[in-house]
Amino acid sequence: MELVFTTLSAGVIALVSALFVALKMLRKKIGTKEMVRVHEAIKEGAKAYIHKQFKIITPFIIVLALILGFSLQSPFPGLTFALGAFLSAFAGYVGMMVAVNANLRTAEASRSSLKEAFKTAFHSGAIMGLTLTGIGLLGVTVLYLFCGEDPSQIIGLGFGASLTALFARVGGGIFTKAADMGADLVGKVEKGIPEDDPRNPAVIADQVGDNVGDIAGTGADVFQSYICTLIAAILVGFQEGMKVGGLEKALEWSFFPIVIMSVGVFASIFALLLIRVDKDGTLIVVDQGIFAASLFVVAASYFVTNFVFEGNLNPFYVIVVGIVTVFLFAFFTEYYTLHGYSPVKAIVNSCRTGAATNVLMGLAVGLESTAIPIIVFCVAIFLSYQISGLFGISLLSIGFLSITAIIMSMSAYGPIVDNSQGIIKMAHIKDEKASENAHTLDSIGNTAKAICKSYAVGASGLAQVALFSAFIEAANLNSINLMNSQVIIGAIIGGMTTFLFSSFLFKAVGKAAFEMIAEVRRQFKEIAGLAEGKVDPNYVKCIDISSKSALKGLFAPAAISRIVPLAVGFIFGAEAVGGLIVGNIATVLPMALLLMNSGTAWDNAKKYIESGELGGKGTPAHEAAVIGDTIGDPFKDTAGPSLDILINVIGSIALLFAAMF
User: Fold this and answer.
1) Those residues with Cβ within 8 angstroms of residue 251's Cβ, 6 or more apart along the chain or in another chain
2) Is 277 left (phi over 0), alpha (psi -120 to 50) or beta?
3) Cα(402)–Cα(294) distance, rounded to whole angstroms?
4) SS3 state at 110
5) Which residues contact 654 (CB under 8 A, 6 or more apart)?
């Protein structure tokens, strides 16, 4: 009973803390009339797109919930599916609305001090992290208590969360990159105007994209990993506990992952208080906050494990492995994507000889960057299985995701400061101090965004491994025979799905960018005085192009993620679905790391040149860097992040229909 109270308290405290910080943020100064005007344009554009997206996916969710209820001969899977979809959408929406209100206040705070601006942005990001984990923890805990002795009833929650996250991530990714590519190629390369220049017709759409893609999309992405991981760990814990000591042990073991997640919420709240800027205006490394949260989780997990498992500390060791894996993922992401290390320096140097060598070097860095993280991933899985079997694998992902709140705070911080910098430029704020503070915050945000994207890849990968463990138990498969032709077919189809899914996304971004570039060129050509800054461009038209393109691009990726696992399962059987999951994991992980790391490395190489390296802006090297960055945009912000969710949608569907295959 004490542990149940702890988990419910953690969820409530997270939400109350988020509300308190949100109210405090909304009381901060909002700046000049021109800053408010730019902010309102971004806010209204983001709200308009999200509302359109919700209108499209809501009927789809309702129909699918009814189909699940009838096909599985129980109303509960359909209801939990609808609840998961709603919670995922709500988590992303709350994060986005916080961000679009925080960007204005962060911009205004930049005019006073770096410390105040950082506090405003980071604490606003914490609202998203705390809301996401609070909703997820409460939702799973309440459903678990309601289901009692049959935790399999909550599987639909994960499927609903994953499917909505796929819509949010894919749609947001297409929206933001269509605008970004149009703004960069025409604005920077053709017209030679700076980033976030108000003369650029696509600049507001670009800022809107940061919110619908990097905030709402990322929030829904990590939320679904959080939910899927918890559900898989609960199911595996229940099955393994039944084997050891009947129903009593099954209930204890299955509730243990929820307790660890609640510990992680308390740890993140504590760690958020430690992240600050020192008196010199230099950031005290954000990693220290993550480290503090991790130590808190490790210490508390020791006592919880000792209590629940009566002296058997094997689950504790697995949780430690999961937390160590977070740090290793973060370190290697920084190594391959930040300009202070040799990989990005090599990309910068390649820009001397043009765009072709830049693209080639960026791909080489991205390919290389997959090796060590995947080895770390494999070692972590091996150790976890050796320590605690299938239950250990599911607990590995629990350890990895236990500090989600503070990681998501960092993730939301990045787009907030990016938007605030844009507001300062577009509002023509002639304040060198504000611009310098905004630039410093943005450089910190680039690091945070890179770390969070690698975290999302690892989280989804481990969530899928946990779902696979639960699927093996649910389908009563003691092993999967690799000599079985159906298993091989499933694995090959799983691998192929990764590439087909990615192709749909690249095509969608390409078509949208084509329309955006044509529109931006048209406005510069036809609107007299636009290039000189005498009149404003038609921002609404560019937002409309991104919105329509994003919504059109949703359907093919969403369809393939549902059709493939069901088709393989009903045609070839459960073992083939097991092969499908393995083949999908084996290709999604390296593909996602390649896309996100190469895209981020191109981006940081461009920014390094813009800081003055190789002659700075306007040089041939800078033009080459902009082209590389533009190619990398859909890599790191559309296809790469969307692959995270693909594997969890497939895993959730496989688990939900396991008994029917």
Assistant:
1) 149, 238, 241
2) beta
3) 8
4) helix
5) 467, 471, 565, 569, 577, 580, 581, 661
Q: How far is Cα 516 from Cα 317, in angstroms, rounded to an integer?
A: 52
- Residue 34: count other Cβ atoms within 10 Å of its Cβ: 14
C-alpha Rg value of the chain to the nearest Å: 24
Q: Where does 605-649 show beta strands of DSSP type E?
A: none
Instruction: Kindly tell me if the per-residue pLDDT of 325 is higher than 80.
Output: yes
Instruction: Give the span between the Cα atoms of 649 and 652, in whole angstroms.
Output: 5
d(CA 611, CA 629): 15
Neighbouring residues of 18: CB distance < 8 A, sequence distance ≥ 6: 126, 127, 130, 131, 134
Distance from chain centroid for Cα 408: 8
Those residues whose C-beta lies under 8 Å from the C-beta of residue 78, and which sit 6 or more positions away, are 65, 66, 67, 68, 69, 70, 72, 156
> What is the C-alpha to C-alpha distance for residues 548 and 124, in angstroms, rounded to an integer?
29
Q: Is 36 exposed, middle or buried (0-12, 13-18, 19+ CB in 10 A)?
A: middle
Beta carbons of 81 and 65 less than 8 angstroms apart: yes
Composition of the chain by helix, strand, coil, percent to 5: 85, 0, 15
Q: What is the pLDDT of residues 358-389, one digit of tens each?
A: 999 999 999 999 999 999 999 999 999 999 88
What are the structure tokens assigned to 10, written together? 């953690």
Give the contacts of 433 (CB within 8 A, at least 6 positions apart): 110, 111
Residue 55 exposure: Cα atoms within 13 Å on the Cβ side: 8
How is residue 30 annotated by DSSP?
A: -
Average pLDDT, integer, range 479-506: 89
Structure pTM?
0.86
Any idea where the domains of the chain sit in the sequence? 2-660
Backbone angles phi, psi at 277, to 5 degrees: -110, 135
Length of the chain in terms of residues written: 661
Average pLDDT of every residue of the chain:
84
Secondary structure letter of residue 93 according to DSSP:
H
> How far is the C-alpha of 428 from the C-alpha of 534, rounded, in Å?
13
Largest CA distance in the chain: 79
Distance CA 82, CA 88 (A): 10
Q: What angle do CA 352, 353, 357 make, to 5 degrees?
A: 110
DSSP state letter for 74: -
Q: What is the pLDDT of residue 320?
A: 93
* Whole-number Å distance between alpha carbons of 193 and 520: 13
Q: How far apart are CA 188 and CA 229, in angstroms?
A: 43
* Contact (Cβ atoms closer than 8 angstroms) between residue 593 and residue 370: yes
- Sorted by sequence, the CB contacts under 8 Å of residue 343 that are 6+ apart come out as 335, 336, 337, 365, 368, 369, 601
Type of residue found at 295: L
DSSP state of 193: P
Give the amino acid at 632: G
**196, 421 in Cβ contact below 8 A?**
yes
Query: Which residue is listed with tokens 């910190």?
Result: 444
Is the pLDDT score of 517 beyond 90? no
